[in-house]
Amino acid sequence: MSASSEMGRIREAADAVRRLGGGTPRVGIILGTGLGGLADAMDAEVSVPFADLPHFPVSTVQSHQGRLLLASLNGVPLVAMQGRFHRYEGYSLQEIAFPVRVMRLLGAGTLIVSAACGGMNPLWGPGDLVLLDDHINFMGDSPLVGENLDELGPRFPDMSTPYDPGLREAAAAVAMEERIVLREGVYAAVTGPQLETRAEYRMLRAMGADVVGMSTVPEVIAARHMGMRVMALAVITDQCLPDALEEVDVEKIIATAMAAGPALTRLVAGVVKGLGAEPPTDAPA
How many CB atoms lie within 10 A of CB 172? Predict the structure, then answer.
């Protein structure tokens, strides 16, 4: 598909969202596995299934409600995805990035991403929140492959600081005020859907990763390509220590993610409140 055709699809989706009403969002939020409860803290003006929006993929994963919200949090207008898309569902990374590009055209200059992950740092445990300070893209692909969308960003975007230092400082300050244990580390993104072998966990840990998951990085790359500030939070849902590896219980993983929801909500709400004092960022034309 040509860049002009893809831009047309993005604009068509953004126009469809605008027609639903609501204000111009300042912040985009993606709610991952088991973390959709953060939406309950928002004052939602519009809630629409992804399937009712032009060109949007549809979530097929358990616990992902598959809805787009136009809402506010602490008085800050935002657009939120209750659920997301993954490469293992059969979607390309360009399709996964599509909603983030729509968010940017709607006006969001900041992206906050949440996800569930496996913990490889032996000093951390299930239920811990991890603020990402870097990532390793082990998906073997990028949402920027193909003709560049020049109207959105440069051909070769810089990734030296994918996660905004100011937002990370704000998150650390909120965590301290709210007495939330907040780890900080590196996320490894893999395709899935199979979980990793013992040897793969050892390799990822040796490469410098603290946690591993099957999402987040494609959206972050697309956001940074468009000049968005990015903050990402991951909830450790299971321990991935090669010498003490246990068989995965998906229901337990979702329950662990949901149990971390209140702390995640307080943390994100505090960061968003601070964003309300900052000037808005102009969206691409």
Answer: 16
DSSP 40: G
Half-sphere exposure of 153 (CA within 13 A, CB side): 17
Element (H or E) spanning 231, and its range?
strand 229-239
Among the listed residues 229, 224, 223, the one whose alpha carbon sits nearest the alpha carbon of residue 280: 229
Q: Is residue 20 in a domain?
A: yes
Mind listing the pLDDT tens digit for each residue in 149-171? 999 999 999 999 999 999 999 99
DSSP 169-214: HHHHHHHHHHT--EEEEEEEE---SSPPPHHHHHHHHHTT-SEEES
Number of structural domains, the chain? 1
Q: How long a stretch of residues is the chain? A: 285
pLDDT tens string 231-262: 999 999 999 999 989 888 888 888 998 899 99
Backbone angles phi, psi at 22, to 5 degrees: 85, 165
pLDDT digit string, tens, across residues 31-55: 987 677 788 889 989 999 999 999 9
pTM for the model: 0.94
CATH number at residue 98: 3.40.50.1580
Q: Could you tell me if 232 and 174 are in contact, meaning their C-beta atoms sit under 8 angstroms apart?
A: no
3-class DSSP assignment, residue 158 = coil
Confirm if 192 and 87 have CB atoms less than 8 A apart.
yes
CB atoms within 10 A of CB 38: 23
Range of the domain at 146: 3-275
